């Protein structure tokens, strides 16, 4: 029985990019429509409602300069057949010293970190091995790395132009030269330039700009756990979340759950806070998850009601009680929440996943990694979730160079 071209395209448009490329070797039709831009947009749009299947792992920017050019890609357990990044793409990122700053729907935003005089921002689809440069915002050269980076693809609208670029990119930079305000730089794909806003109401605490959460039309950051300059009795004494509404230019402070704020004035090495997206994508269950790691105990809360800032605790567990496949894990190098339900964390040599919901709470070893720094006892890694799509880059895209 012969299957029509339309049915084939519809079925393939719901598959990740990796099996589509595999079918190209045995299916002529697959080889033809996989290079069609309208099909690529449709496939990328369909995968918006599916979970990300892998992640990039790399040393954080606070790690020594010589170790920043490491970048690894790993698939989640059970996703190895459907998720992957070509070795050429990884090699190109490593050889150019590229840092993955953000990811959305198959696109990653990177910056060249090889030399202080050659740091360029670019968008890349590592699956299709394509890239395009975008202008670097003013004042972000030298040692001023982009900090609070948000990349959000939005391709829900009908696709009439296969070369259109529909994404939001913004960078929130901390105060410089003792100025009182943060800087919000918003990139316009149509105009090819940046617009800047000044934000004054973020409070005195240092914000974790490396883990932004875009939710309800606002970008959210959690503050640090301790700041000697904030005295007891101040409304900012305990850590908090700041929400910045981009369109209305309004800033709001969200309080943390009471048990998360208690005892939060420990040193930076024994207490870490992080916020992440929670719940299924494009659904009413989407929210914010707060995770605290203190004395090797993970505790997690979910923002149950955004308007009233009501939280519910969903998890509290010691790392040793999780059943890790290594003796005495004495350091957690980083953690994140993927797909609104899975806790990922890295020890000195391995990465683990832990299901935070339902009855199937269990630990799985995801991979071993090579991101450790031998010269720093407190090195950290950062995770960047990735979706395996054919998302086009629009006009100006080129094939990744052979390096």
Strand line-up across the major sheet: 3-4-5-6-24
The third-level CATH topology is Neuraminidase
Distance between the termini: 46 Å
Mean pLDDT across the residues is 84
Q: CATH H-level name... which superfamily?
A: Kelch-type beta propeller
Which CATH class?
Mainly Beta
**CATH architecture name:** 6 Propeller
Strand composition percent: 35-45%
Q: What's the quaternary structure here?
A: single chain
- Unreliable segments (pLDDT under 50, ≥5 consecutive)? none
Cα shape:
globular
Structural class: mainly beta
The number of helical runs is 6
Helices and strands, in order, run as: HHHHEEHEEEEEEEEEEEEHEEEEEEEEEE
The level of helicity is 10-25%
Structure overview:
The protein is mostly beta strands. It has a single domain, classed as Kelch-type beta propeller (Neuraminidase, 6 Propeller). It is built from six helices and 24 strands. The chain has helices at residues 5-12, 17-23, 28-33, 37-46, 87-95, 258-261; strands at 54-59, 72-75, 98-104, 107-112, 121-125, 130-133, 148-153, 167-173, 182-188, 193-199, 213-215, 218-222, 240-245, 250-255, 271-278, 287-294, 297-305, 310-318, 334-338, 342-346, 350-355, 363-368, 381-386, 398-399. The strands form six sheets. It has a five-stranded antiparallel sheet with strand order 3-4-5-6-24, with helices on one face. Residues 93-272 form the F-box protein At3g26010-like beta-propeller domain.
């Amino acid at each position: 029985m012969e299957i029509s071209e339309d049915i084939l395209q519809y079925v393939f448009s719901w598959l990740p990019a990796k099996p589509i490329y595999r079918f190209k070797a045995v299916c002529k039709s697959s080889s033809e429509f996989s290079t069609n831009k309208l099909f690529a947009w449709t496939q990328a749009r369909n995968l918006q409602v599916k979970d990300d299947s892998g992640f990039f792992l790399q040393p954080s920017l606070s790690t020594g300069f010589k170790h920043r050019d490491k970048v690894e890609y790993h698939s989640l357990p059970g996703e190895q057949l459907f998720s992957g990044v070509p070795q050429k793409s990884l090699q190109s990122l490593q050889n150019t010293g590229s840092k993955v700053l953000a990811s959305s729907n198959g696109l990653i935003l990177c910056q060249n970190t090889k030399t202080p005089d050659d740091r360029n921002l670019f968008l890349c689809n590592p699956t299709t091995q394509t890239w395009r440069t975008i202008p670097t915002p003013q004042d972000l050269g030298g040692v001023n790395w982009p900090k609070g980076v948000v990349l959000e693809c939005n391709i829900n609208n009908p696709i009439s132009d296969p070369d259109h670029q529909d994404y939001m990119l913004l960078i929130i930079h901390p105060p410089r030269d003792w100025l009182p305000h943060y800087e919000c730089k918003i990139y316009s794909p149509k105009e090819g330039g940046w617009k800047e806003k000044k934000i004054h109401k973020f409070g005195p605490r240092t914000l974790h700009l490396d883990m932004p959460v875009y939710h309800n039309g606002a970008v959210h950051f959690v503050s640090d756990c301790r700041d000697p300059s904030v005295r007891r009795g101040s409304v900012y004494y305990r850590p908090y979340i700041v929400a910045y509404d981009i369109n209305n230019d309004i800033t709001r402070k969200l309080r943390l759950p009471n048990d998360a704020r208690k005892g939060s004035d420990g040193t930076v090495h024994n207490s870490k806070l992080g916020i992440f997206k929670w719940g299924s994508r494009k659904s009413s269950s989407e929210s914010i998850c707060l995770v605290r790691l203190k004395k090797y105990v993970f505790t997690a809360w979910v923002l149950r009601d955004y308007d009233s800032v009501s939280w519910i605790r969903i998890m509290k567990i010691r790392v040793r009680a999780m059943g890790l496949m290594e003796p005495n894990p004495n350091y957690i190098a980083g953690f994140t929440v993927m797909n609104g339900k899975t806790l990922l964390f890295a020890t000195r040599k391995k990465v683990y996943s832990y299901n935070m919901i339902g009855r199937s709470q269990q630990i799985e070893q995801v991979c071993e990694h090579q991101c450790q720094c031998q010269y720093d006892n407190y090195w950290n890694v950062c995770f960047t979730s990735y979706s395996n799509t054919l998302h086009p880059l629009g006009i100006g895209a080129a094939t990744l160079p052979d390096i």
